[in-house]
Structures are given as structure tokens and as C-alpha cells.
Amino acid sequence: MPPRLYVEPPLRAGWCTLPPAAARHVQVLRLRPGAELVVFDGSGGEWRARLHAAQQVELIEHYAVEREAAQHVVLAVGMPANERMDWLVEKATELGAAAIQPLITQRSVLRLSGERAHRRLEHWRGIAVAASEQCGRNTLIDIAAVRHLGEWLRDPPPQTLRYLLSPQADTAQALPAVSPGQRVCVLSGPEGGLDAAEEALARAAGFAAVSLGPRVLRAETAPLAALMQLTAPRPAG
Hints:
By secondary structure, this protein is an alpha/beta fold. The protein has two domains: about 5-65, CATH 2.40.240.20; about 70-230, SPOUT methyltransferase, trefoil knot domain (Alpha/beta knot, 3-Layer(aba) Sandwich).
């Protein structure tokens, strides 16, 4: 499979100058002039391309191919600390999440604001780009700016279905199967989970508490487990 490179939009047939990050990728892969590439700009579809120099490629033919999940799933997550949020972003991209909303909660270890929050957001978006290059996605996941949970719950995204991952939920209250095209928002807490007041606020905002089973999953694992359940292909018949 030819290497895949992300280039900021818009892309058009003809010659394209690679941005520094993509050019470095070409160097790391030790690609030579004439090498076949796949280039995408995150707006949909991909281009068959040919490398002519370290920073010059020819965009030859566009293919309107997408590899998105059938369901539009937003993960609203109380940010786990250290590298765990990086890992969550990478795997959520690979598994087909449409968007991630990083949240600060009462029990959050990772608290970001100002320039530090902006730098971390750009870092996560870079991780998502690299994951898209690897996994074949042509539409970039939307990673929103960091917000406080209470503020975000006053104006959550207008998803049709809203679920709260709660260790207090009865195990019989499992995530239901959702139809292709359905829009879903999944809210999960950081290490230690959401506190009782935050869960009450979420329920008041229309989030139904659900369980992922009898075991308590880590903050970076739970939203990914929910994502996999929601986007898993439904059995025929």
C-alpha cells in the first residue's frame, strides 16, 4: 500500500508543494522521485499522487472513497492524565469517532487553560492526523477546545442520543444498538469518574446512564469500549 500523507486543504489536480511535516515524512520513509503516494486533505476522498522531489508531488487522480463509521459518535471525555489522553485520541481516530470533546471535571488530574491548552490541542490534532494517515481515514476527526464540564453541559452538541458511562448504572442498563446514520454523544469521566453532582447535571441535560459491564474500566479505555460497541457492524437478519 502506498504511503499516505496529509496536506492541508484545498487540494486540486496538478502540482502540490508539501508542507514541512509531510516533507519530513517523505524523508523519514526515504522515498525517491517516482514513488507512488496517497494524499488527502481531510475534507473527504484521497488523491493518487507521484513524488517528483522532496517537497513536490503531482496529484493525478481523485477517489471519492471514505472509511468512516456508519454512526456519528462524539466522545466527551474527562481528560485522563499524562500520555493516556494521547493514546485515547490516537485509538479513537483509528476506531472511527467523529469528534472528541476534552473536558475538565472536579476529579480531573489534567487541567489545561490558556496557551498550554492551545498547545496541547494542536498536539492532539497532530496525533489524529498521523493516525488518519496510518488507518486510511480521509475525513479528520474534530477535536474541540478544552472546556469545563458544567459549561459544556449548558450547551451540549445536538446529538439525537446521549449516554453517560457510569459505574453506578445497573449492568442491565447497557448501551443499545444504534442504527447507521445515528448521531450519538458519549460522556465519560476522568480517573475516579464524575462526582454525584456532575452525574446529576448530565442526567438533567438528557444523558442516560449506562453500564459497560461488571468491571471498572480505565478512563482512557471506557470511551473506546463504548465507541466499539456503538459502531460494531450489526448481524445480518
